[in-house]
Automatic annotation (TrEMBL):
This is Nitrite/sulphite reductase 4Fe-4S domain-containing protein. Keywords: 4Fe-4S, Heme, Iron, Iron-sulfur, Metal-binding, Oxidoreductase. Residues 5-61 form the Nitrite/sulphite reductase 4Fe-4S domain. The keyword Lipid biosynthesis does not apply. GO terms for molecular function: 4 iron, 4 sulfur cluster binding; heme binding; metal ion binding; oxidoreductase activity. InterPro entries: NasD-like, NO2/SO3_Rdtase_4Fe4S_dom, NO2/SO3_Rdtase_4Fe4S_sf, NO2/SO3_Rdtase_FeS/sirohaem_BS. Gene3D superfamilies: Sulfite Reductase Hemoprotein, domain 1. PROSITE patterns: NIR_SIR.
Amino acid sequence: MAIQLENRYKGLRSPHKIKFGVSGCTRECAEAQSKDIGIIATENGWNLYVCGNGGMRPATPNCSPPT
């Protein structure tokens, strides 16, 4: 999944760098929640986090949908 995301968004023009994180389990070794967009595997699928690491106001990650 990480390679597919990288290939899809490589070269995307944006006002700042966008960081993605993909973790294969809930131990979250890749620190996906601290990236702009994070994906973490769970027993039932994936949790998507829109984290807001970049920008003027870094924020606590929000899980969509909450689990």
